[in-house]
Amino acid sequence: MPRILSGVQSTVPTVAESPPPFDTAAWLAKLNDAQREAVEYGAATPNEPPGALLVIAGAGSGKTNTLAHRVANLVVNGADPRRILLLTFSRRAALEMTRRVARIAGAALGARAALAQGLTWSGTFHSVGARLLREYADLIGLAPAFTINDREDSADLMNFVRHELGLSAKERRFPAKSTCFAIYSRVVNTGASLADVLDHAFPWCREWEADLRMLFAAYVEAKQKQSVLDYDDLLLYWSHMAAEPSIAADMSARFDHVLVDEYQDTNRLQASILLALKPDGRGLTVVGDDAQSIYSFRGATVRNILDFPAHFDPPARQVTLDRNYRSTGPILAASNAVIELASERYTKNLWTEKASAQLPRLVTVAGEAEQARYVVEQVLEAREQGMQLKSQAVLFRAAHHSAALEIELTRRNIPFVKFGGLKFLDSVHVKDVLAVLRWAENPRDRIAGFRVVQLLPGVGPATAAKVLDEVVARAGAGTGNPADTAGSTLAAFTPPPRAQEDWHPFVTLMSSVYGRQTPWPAEFEMVRRWYEPHLERNHEDAAIRHADVLQMESIAGTYPSRERFLTELTLDPPDATSDESGVPLLDEDYLILSTIHSAKGQEWRNVFVLNGVDGCIPSDLGTGSEDEIDEERRLLYVAMTRAKEDLHIVVPQRFYVHNQPHLGDRHVWASRTRFIPAHLMPLFEAYAWPRVPVPGAPSAAGLAAAAQAKIEIGAKLRKMWD
After folding, report:
1. Domain identity same for 305 and 361
2. In this structure, are 558 and 478 located in the same domain?
3. Based on the domain organization, do 220 and 242 belong to the same domain?
4. Which of 276, 278, 291, 712 is the most exposed place for a label (fewest CB within 10 A)?
5. pLDDT at 22 over 60
């Protein structure tokens, strides 16, 4: 029978009876000893979960395969897959994990393979949080039909409140909306006080502490009035909900096993949620690598994984995966040496059976232009030897570090794709279509409505504000639900003269989507057809953008409802968009360019790391404390461990100062990154490029001849002043 907690129906499936024992030798045979230890820990008694387990999984050690086998092994041994919560950091990772579990468990279960299909609680922290918040909404004072703002829309709402409070009209420049939202997000995710965040991360904003506190309070109030949540709210509400003992107990009882991937990338909110779900650690497994913790700018803290065992009594069981299946021995030797210099870490030295005589290359070049030419020549040489461009990657600390290389690649007609820039939801046309759907889902969503109404010609901010005010006011006079009255409110509104022609089709559309008159996903097609003329009117490259909208329509068809589509797409958007990709690629092969942060979890045969100098790695903005320096060291480690066969760290000696044309060709000199000190140099093949003699340099014969004509220039210079 389902259990009822204060009006919330919580359906907890009956635990499956334990099946007869299986011969696990066959399907676990490919695991190494450490992987198998992690997989089999406590699995023999799935209905009596064991204590907490920490798996330290080094780069390339088969982490995903191990975690998938652990979940599958639990299912094979009788655990109910519907009572397993699997948390990952992207929806794609969750889908891939679910597929692997089904495949692995299916091979072991044979005719009963359907049992492995019930892993229904697999997703990101944010998507699972959104799902639970809707289920418990009535208990926590939240409207179940809330919508979720992406980060840009959240910053827009912050800016709207900022303007209403008069902060944008200060005599002295007040922090921009993006800065305000970054400060707010840092406070929420780290659990630090506003004063501490300002002191350590935004010192130039200290003078505005009181105004920022007022702004954030008003921002929270605005979100609540509009029934919208931002990304951070999904974790913040969940953590507060988990802090309520009765709700926490109910949530905990739903899951026998909780498994978390990439635990080193969690923030304090996420850690508190896990500890509330499994305070004694029973059934809790976390997998991660402290050496790859590189997301502190998002509020993640390496302390979560370093301190994890001590949260439990007895301490969590620890299993270390240190066999690397990706890189060659010399690459691992250099990578291990770099990370060994960190101030605090789990002891772990990766090893491999992949032998190679090729050391990682540490290449000194004159400047950024030479760096670009070196990379291009090496990439083309590898391609001539049979290595695809897609098997090669160029990694960099910041997106702008690849500017000179992109110019050289374009000049040499080498196709490339760059990761680490804009996201799909940042493009204007995608945001327009999603705004229509979000406003239909939640008519109180002022940011979405403000955007939609202004798509019509002749409608500006003042008119849009009047429309939104009337929608909410009419709702208050009726049922209190704007969706019941929004259509009639729009129909009764008198639009500006220029909007008259487009107003009736707009009202027809919104009345239909408010009332859900058209089933999903046909509703999306109706929105797309309404939007097409506005797309053509507002964008010269409408054809390219139209392809994005069609792609989004096909994606929409894979979701059961509008609410699910909006939630999932907002929390885990695709990477590509015509705004950033330009003309579609005509080549089937292309070079990968990526920031190091975006490269995490990837691997390539040939890897180039740009700007291996102090000021870039580590960033000159990341050396304020030992913790920051350690994270920069981990960034280099992550970059190095992406390489399977060849690794090039390029060290330009000279950087020109850009954006200051009046200074001419001013430049600065750089030194090799501090993370590769002199005593590590034997682990690298170090050389300067180009290796050929510089044209015009004097030959040995020329120097010998010049020695015969020895002159005393100093005497001539003194004589000038006689």
Report:
1. no
2. yes
3. no
4. 712
5. no
The SS3 assignment for 609 reads strand
Distance CA 207, CA 272 (A): 32
Q: What tokens appear for 34 in the block?
A: 């450490």
Go through 628-643 and write b for each residue having 16 or more CB atoms within 10 A of its CB, e for each that does not: bbbbbbbbbbbbbbbb
- Residue 556 is assigned to a ligand binding site: no
Paired tokens of 48: 């009596």
Does the annotation flag 64 for ligand binding?
Answer: yes
For residues 243 and 155, membership in a common domain is answered with no
Q: How many Å apart are CA 199 and CA 624, to the nearest integer?
A: 12
Q: Determine if residue 624 is labeled as part of a ligand binding site.
A: no
Tell me if 463 sits within 8 A of 495, measured CB to CB. yes
Count of structural domains within the chain:
4
Q: What is the pLDDT of residue 351?
A: 94
348 labelled binding-site residue: no
* CATH number of residue 364's parent domain: 3.40.50.300
Residues 6+ apart with CB under 8 A from 642: 393, 395, 599, 602, 603, 604, 607
711 φ, ψ to 5°? Answer: -130, 160
601 labeled binding residue: no
Residue type, position 442, single letter: N
Question: 314 with 337, same domain?
Answer: no
DSSP helix/strand/coil, 645: strand
* pLDDT tens sequence across 215-251: 999 999 999 999 999 999 999 999 999 999 999 999 9
Examine the domain organization and report whether 598 and 545 are in the same domain: no
Query: Domain for residue 26, yes or no?
Result: no
Q: Is residue 193 part of a domain?
A: yes
State yes or no: 641 annotated in a binding site. Answer: no
Looking at the fold, whether 380 and 354 belong to one and the same domain comes out as: yes
Confirm whether 636 is domain-assigned: yes
| Long-range contacts, stretch 178-182, CB < 8 angstroms, 24+ apart | 179/205, 180/155, 180/212, 180/215, 181/151, 181/154, 181/155
Q: Does 61 show up as a binding residue in the annotation?
A: yes
> Where do the DSSP E strands lie in 577-666?
591-595, 604-609, 643-656
| 383, part of any domain | yes
Residue with tokens 């931002």: 230
Q: Which of 77-86, 89-98, 379-388 has the lowest mean pLDDT?
A: 89-98
Same domain flag for 316 and 355: no
**pLDDT score, position 286:** 97
Q: Tokens at residue 138, please?
A: 């009535």
Alpha helices in 49-204 (DSSP H): 63-76, 91-109, 125-135, 151-164, 177-190, 194-201
Q: Which domain holds residue 242?
A: 33-130+237-321
Query: Is 62 marked within a binding site?
Result: yes
Position 577 pLDDT exceeds 50: no
